[in-house]
Amino acid sequence: MINHGRTNYREVSLDDEQKTEHTVSKNSSKVDLNNLIKKIKEEEKRSKRQNIVISAAALSAVAVFGIILTL
Q1: Segments making up each domain of the chain, as ranges
Q2: SS3 of the chain
Q3: Considering the entire predicted model, what is its pTM?
Q4: pLDDT for 5-20, tens place per residue?
């Protein structure tokens, strides 16, 4: 242990395997903006499709109700 003033430091030696594990875990925490943008666009497409399906179902229900009223 090396004592610098009030703070205690401990020297640690890492072998190559530990260094690569540390590097991999450090890199995996990064966020790729391109992936986030792609996910947002896919979610918007799904949302639009869902809205179209709901609108079509509502319109169909109104049309069927209108046809029943005219009979």
Answers
A1: 32-71
A2: CEEECCEEECCCCCCHHHHHHHHHHHHHCCCCHHHHHHHHHHHHHHHHHHHHHHHHHHHHHHHHHHHHHHC
A3: 0.51
A4: 555 555 555 555 555 5
